[in-house]
Structures are given as C-alpha cells and as structure tokens.
Protein: DUF7580 domain-containing protein
Amino acid sequence: MVDPLSVAGLSIAIFDQLLKLGERTAQLIADAKSFNEDTDIYHNKVVDENNRTKQLRHILFEPSPIYGGVTLFESFDIDVQQQIKIFLSRLVHILREAFELLENRYGSCDPLRSPSPDPLSSKLHGPSSSSDISLLIASTSSQLTLVQSTRAPSPRTPWRALSRQSLSFLRWSFQDKKRTEEILRDFADLNGRIHENIKLWCLASSIGLNMQHLKRLQNDESSIQLGFNIDATLQITASEANSTESSFQLSGPSWLESLRKASPVEERFALIQHQGKTYLQEHRRYDGAHDPFEEVDERTKLRIDDLARLLHQPKERVFCIPRCIGWRYIPGRGSIAFVFEIPENCESQPVSLYRLLDMKNIKLTLGQRFHLALALAKCMTQLQMVKWVHESFRSENILFFPTNTRNTSVDQEASGIPSINYTNPSVLGFEFTRPELDFSAGFADLCIERDVYRHPERQGRPGRMFTKAHDIYALGVVLLEIGLWQRAITLEKNHFKSARDPFVIRAQLIKQAQRRLGDKMGEKYQQVVLACLMGEFGVTNDTREDLKLQQAFRTQVVDVLERIAAYI
Structure:
C-alpha cells in the first residue's frame, strides 16, 4: 500500500505534468489558426482550466500551521488523497490525447521531457525525491498511461515558416478536428468535476469544521478565484450566527404597512410594494403566542434571525435561493414574513412548479425537463455541502419568475403561457431550514399533500431527526413529477387519502417511476429518480458528515443529469 507521503508526492508530480501539458496544448491551439474558426474559444478554455489547476495546486499543497505544519492534501483521509490522484491521472490522459492530435499537425513540443524538480516535492521527500517521484509515476503507467517512454526530440520547422501549400497539406481532416474538440470538452468537464469534488472535501468533510481552515478559504486569493470563499463564508456565518448581535428584523411602521398591503400569490407567497420596489414575501405561521397581538418570543426570534442571516448571505447562483433582506412579525395575523429580492430582468408575478404541473397548455421539451431537474439537483448538492438541510423541499416551494421578454408566438400569448427560463428556478420554503448540526425532530403535520413529498420516516409525527437522505427523497419526488409532468398527489386515484402506512406512499411512487418514467425520460433519468426514492446509493460505513453519501449523490444524480443535459 502506498503511504500518504508518497501519494502526496505523486499527486504534486501529476499536477506539474498537467500544467506543462496545458501550457503547450494552449500554445499549439494559439498557433494553429486552421484548427477551427473558433480557435480562440478552445485556447481560452485550456488557459482557464490550466489557471484553475494552478489555484487548486496552491490550495492543496501549501504547508500551513492550520493543518499542523503539513498541507491540506495531507490532512485529507488516505482514500480522498487516492481519489484526487486518480482524478488527476485521468485528466492527464485526456489532455495528452488532445495534445498529441494537435502535435501531429502543427509541430513538436514534448511537455514531459526533462521536468524540473519541484521545490515543494523536495521538501516533502528529501534529496532523492526526483527519482522517487519518477518511480512512482512509472508505477502507475500501466493503469493510466501517465508517462510515455522518453524519446529524443526531433526538431521540426515551426508552422509559421511553412508555405501556404504546406499549410494546406497539414490541414486537419474533419474527423481529427471533431475528436480534438470533443476531447477538450471532456477535459473541461472532468476538470470541473475535480474542482467540485475538492470543494466538497474542503467543506463537507470533518476538516470543514475547522474555523481557521474556513477562514483561509474565505481570504486566500486562490480560494477566492476558485469560488471556495463563498461557501466557506456561509459555513462561518452559520457557525457564528448565535454570537452575532445585528438583527435582520425589518423595523419601522412603513415595512409593517407594506406587508399588510401585500398582494397574495399562490398559496404561501405575496408581492410587496415598498419605497417604489417590489419584493417577494413568504409567510410562515407562528403559533407560539397565546394572543395574536403578542410579539415573538426571544428564542423564536433568535432562530428566525439566524435563518434570515443565512439566507441574506451572497451565494453562488447554483443555490437557486433568492437573497433575503429580512423578516417581520405581523401582529394580529399570527404570521412571520420573510422578504426576498426578486431576480433582475424578471416579471414580479411568480408561478410555482406545483401550479405549472396542473396547466394543460404547458408542455416542456425533454431538454427543458432535464435542465430543470439538473438545476434542482445542483441546488440540493450545494445545500448538502454547506451542511444545510431544507426539510420542506416540494414543488409548491419552487418558483419561477417569467422573463420580461414574452414569447413572440401569438397563440402562446393568447393562451397565457408565461415565458419561463426553466434552468433558473427559485427554491424557497424555508420554514425549518437550518444548519444540519441543529437537532430537529420536527412538528406533527398530517397534511397528505405535504406528506407525499416526505420520506416515510418523516411523515405525520416524525420520530427521527431529519437527515440529508430525507431531502434527497423529497428531490426524487419532485424529479418524478417533472418526468411525468404530473403532481405527485395525483399518482394515486384517491390522492393517497386512504394511505395509513407511510411506506405505502413511497411504494406507489416507486411503482409509477418503474412503470412510466423510462418511456418518457429514458432509463438513466429513471435510475436517478429510483435511487433518490429508494435511497440506494451503495454507501456503507459512511462518515459522520455523510461525505460518501454526498459524493455518491453527486456522481449518480448530478453528474448523470449534467452529462445528459449537455447533449439535449
């Protein structure tokens, strides 16, 4: 078995080979103007991915007192280190194929010839590190073709010096161009997945509980360029919520007046006009007071304030969460209003997925359904990464704000079909959303229309603490609705009113997915939904943070949907 120090040295070496390959591939593309009319796009893509690789290398392999004098990479579990090494080796293999295709047409440039020793590798391995690393790289060549046998470089004439006739002779065949373009897309896709997995390991594993580590991710320049700082800030905010004195309660009589005049939208939302601007209100019933004119008790006020603070923090768009500006209790109505900004360039009147599912004139294309499913799956994986659970994920809490540009079709205009970007849903419904470490057994809720989205362990009067698996189940129900384009409550002729056993509801949903979903959405989508509903991700002996579950969810749900959506 390879010891951790050797894995670290090998991974540094692979990073270095990847960077050299990236630099020379980018140069070849820049020189090869006959490659494609979009040459600059491919060149910039390789340059951008190479820059991301440099930032990841910096984050992972800079020794720091935060990690006891070693690197972040060495602070990971050995299985995580091995996964990073394998990911990087696959990346080298993909990029090498692109480089060799380009090199065959446009010149010679061997990126793996005489690599210079890495100073950090020397610190980790001592004087003989260069030969040790060479042996380690060679030991993996039979599996991943990481290195090729050394060959003497043969000088070739630079392409710029060639005649027009020679250039014409060297022009690519259609097949080679197409293959290289596919390879570069695969390279960017895999590098993106490496980036997301490393972010997951940085934030969702046990090391993500280290406040110094989070503050490094928040402030380090490489981390900022990678976008790790945004999620690190969310975790820090959640950890320090109770120690923050500032309140997000909307004060002043003008806000109370605006909230009282709000125009209802759907069942749980309303639109507010305040000082010339429109906001979205989401209301939550408050039953803590004996008198509806009493103020909110201090414990509830702290909990609500913490939630508003979390929802106020800047987030990546993939969270699909509008920015909350604050909250206010409305005396006399027994409700608490959360106030959200409305996305730019959108109409203020939203429509929920729940209502869209019941509109007979709404017909989404296959591509629109896959992109919507992908957006919601990415939202779920982001919530998991920052250690949040949603607890109320269902189609009535997924809103769309139609764009200002309406469909140009006269028939669609007459039928009232809204112009909606289905890749940009807004996820709300934050009644019980909280940091995962907070305990919540939940409140009794016997509404069958909400129970149909809940895991059997959480229906009625829940007896178990809410977990990530329960949110994944709810996502599976929503994805089933999107695939069949039908509300979950209607998937049983009596609307589940006679269901006494909560597991009966799940069995019916699974049956519907098995019988109908494959024909409508394909086998891969069907497998994604069934995995969510059945909780079968092949995970055993998981960590306390459910890290293996999160990785399996990303691989078996998010990555699958992303690959299909990219080709539809």
About this structure: The first strand starts at residue 263 and ends at 265. Residues 248-342 form a domain with the Phosphorylase Kinase; domain 1 fold (CATH 3.30.200). Residues 174-204 form the longest helix (31 residues).
